[in-house]
């Protein structure tokens, strides 16, 4: 239970909240929305994660391939799109929700990408 | 049986025609060993009720002084189970003053409400104040506490409307904790002028303690006639920090607060 809502939070066994980190400001929070936690507990949602590096890679890929600038938050979803597409196969359809645009993230994303240049 | 310690402390203060002094300190700041020394010293210095803070990573109702104390306590390895062991040791060594925990919901949720209520009552805790547990969520918890013999002390604020205040007054146990300011603990600012009028409305319950913005003996003296108890936290925590956990300077502050009531 954090900030007035009961949800899934990053915490230790004593119920102390862990320090969160994310390259994306909108995800830099040690919990998720209660609706998502509820759907996950109902088994109606399968949750996957993406790292900073994977999100930045997906961000670059969509910029280059489609000329669309996704928000860094949405880039985490994009990072899993390829893997899910392979799972559903050619006959399936994959819908990615670009929940926000990346204009706001551009200078931050470029700096983060710069930092990673030259690293494999 | 435990709840009676709170009632008895208020009754004794009333018999002496004064307000009860509720003294807050954060358990484990700077260490649990220091807390074990500080609690009896604060009681001997005249505190009627001990409010023992349960350190939490995200203490949203607390100002910078208690936030820092909470961090120090966590850094010294304090956890809710260790804190309950400390209370049991204090009781075993003869501490008879009422002891109320002030802690946020999540560590109690992690332990399980029922488990917490039973373990706390068994250790010798009389009640708990859970500032991020609003009235709407308090009912089932309060029922579990009642069953264990632990008081769930509810809070009211200057912004609480009369009809909600009446529901809080009905549900609270031990006493009603009236938050004097619209802000966090240790505000340091002046107390609102309307506070005595607000407290008069709150005193539909037998015992009302006022806290959150009371740091100086003058403020405690000013508020004392309007409440059954006055809670002082930040000033004590600051003194504990300044004295490095030594008991005597803290006891001196508590004596001056008690004399003001």
Task: Walk me through what this model shows.
The complex is a heterodimer of chains A (120) and B (261). Chain A is mainly α. Helices cover 42% and strands 0% of the residues of chain A. In chain A, α2 (52-66) packs across α3 (72-88) and α2 packs across α4. Chain A is globular and about 45 Å long. Chain B has 261 residues and is an alpha/beta fold. Chain B has a single domain, classed as Aldolase class I (TIM Barrel). Chain B has a nine-stranded parallel sheet with strand order 5-4-3-2-1-9-8-7-6. In chain B, α10 (217-223) links the parallel β8 and β9. In chain B, α2 (32-44) packs parallel to α12, α6 crosses α7 and α10 (217-223) runs parallel beside α12. Chain B is globular. The two termini of chain B are 28 Å apart. The mean pLDDT of chain B is 94. Chains A and B meet through loops of A and α5 of B.
Summary tags:
heterodimer, A: 120 residues, mainly alpha, 2 domains, 42% helix, B: 261 residues, TIM Barrel, 9-stranded parallel sheet, 12 helices, globular
Quick structural summary:
The complex is a heterodimer of chains A (120) and B (261). Chain A is mainly alpha-helical and 120 residues long. Helices cover 42% and strands 0% of the residues of chain A.
Topology:
The complex is a heterodimer of chains A (120) and B (261).
Chain A lengths: L33 H8 L10 H15 L5 H17 L17 H11 L4
Chain B lengths: L1 H14 L4 E7 L5 H13 L4 E5 L10 H12 L4 H13 L6 E4 L2 H7 L1 H11 L3 E3 L5 H14 L2 E3 L1 E2 L5 H10 L4 E4 L15 H8 L5 E4 L5 H7 L5 E4 L1 H9 L4 H14 L1
Parallel strand pairs in B: 1-2, 1-9, 2-3, 3-4, 4-5, 6-7, 7-8, 8-9
Helix pairs in contact in B: 2-4, 2-12, 4-6, 5-6, 6-7, 10-12
Runs of chain B in which pLDDT lies below 50 for 5 or more consecutive residues are none
Strand segment count of chain A: 0
**What does the oligomeric state look like here?**
heterodimer
What is the count of distinct domains of chain B?
1
**What is the name of the CATH class of the largest domain in chain A?**
Alpha Beta
Helix/strand order of chain A: HHHH
Distance between the termini of chain B: 28 Å
Would you tell me the structural class of the helices and strands of chain A?
A: mainly alpha
Order of strands, main sheet of chain B, comes to 5-4-3-2-1-9-8-7-6
Provide the succession of SSEs of chain B: HEHEHHEHHEHEEHEHEHEHH
Helix content of chain A: 40-55%
Task: State the fourth-level CATH superfamily of chain B.
Answer: Aldolase class I
Mean pLDDT of chain B: 94
| Largest beta-sheet details of chain B | 9 strands, parallel
User: What portion of residues of chain B belong to β-strands?
Assistant: 5-15%
CATH architecture of the largest domain in chain A: 3-Layer(aba) Sandwich
- What is the C-alpha radius of gyration of chain B, as a whole number of Å? 16 Å
The number of distinct helices of chain A, counting runs of at least 4 residues, comes to 4
CATH topology-level fold name of chain B: TIM Barrel
**Judging from the principal axes of the Cα atoms, what is the shape of chain B?**
globular
The tally of helices of chain B reads: 12
């Amino acid at each position: 239970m954090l900030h007035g809502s009961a949800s899934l939070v990053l915490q230790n066994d004593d119920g102390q909240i862990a320090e969160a980190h994310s390259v994306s400001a909108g995800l830099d929070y040690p919990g998720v929305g209660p609706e998502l936690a509820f759907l996950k507990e109902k088994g109606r949602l399968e949750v996957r994660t993406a790292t900073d590096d994977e999100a930045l890679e997906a961000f670059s890929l969509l910029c280059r391939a489609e000329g669309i600038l996704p928000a860094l938050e949405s880039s985490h979803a994009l990072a899993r799109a390829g893997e899910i597409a392979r799972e559903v196969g050619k006959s399936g359809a994959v819908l990615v929700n670009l929940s926000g645009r990346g204009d706001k993230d551009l200078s931050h994303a470029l700096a983060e990408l710069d930092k990673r240049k030259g690293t494999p | 049986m435990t709840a009676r310690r709170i009632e008895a402390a208020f009754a004794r203060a009333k018999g002496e025609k004064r307000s009860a002094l509720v003294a807050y300190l954060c358990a484990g700041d700077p260490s649990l060993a220091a807390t074990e020394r500080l609690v009896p010293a604060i009681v001997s210095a005249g505190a009627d009720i001990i409010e023992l803070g349960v350190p939490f990573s995200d203490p949203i109702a607390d100002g910078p002084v208690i936030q820092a104390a909470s961090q120090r306590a966590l850094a010294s390895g304090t956890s809710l189970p260790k804190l309950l062991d400390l209370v049991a040791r204090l009781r075993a060594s003869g501490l008879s003053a009422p002891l109320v925990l002030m802690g946020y919901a999540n560590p109690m949720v992690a332990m399980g409400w029922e488990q917490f209520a039973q373990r706390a009552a068994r250790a010798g805790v009389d009640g708990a104040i859970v500032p991020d547990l609003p009235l709407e969520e308090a009912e089932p918890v309060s029922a579990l506490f009642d069953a264990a013999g632990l008081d769930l002390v509810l809070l009211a604020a200057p912004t609480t409307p009369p009809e909600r205040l009446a529901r809080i007054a009905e549900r609270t146990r031990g006493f009603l904790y009236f938050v004097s300011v619209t802000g966090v603990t240790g505000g340091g600012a002046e107390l609102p002028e309307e506070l005595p009028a607000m407290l008069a409305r709150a005193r539909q319950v037998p015992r009302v303690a006022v806290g959150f913005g009371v740091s100086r003996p003058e403020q405690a003296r000013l508020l004392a006639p309007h409440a059954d108890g006055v809670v002082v936290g930040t000033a004590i925590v600051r003194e504990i920090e300044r004295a490095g956990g030594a008991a005597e300077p803290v006891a001196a502050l508590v004596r001056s607060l008690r004399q003001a009531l």
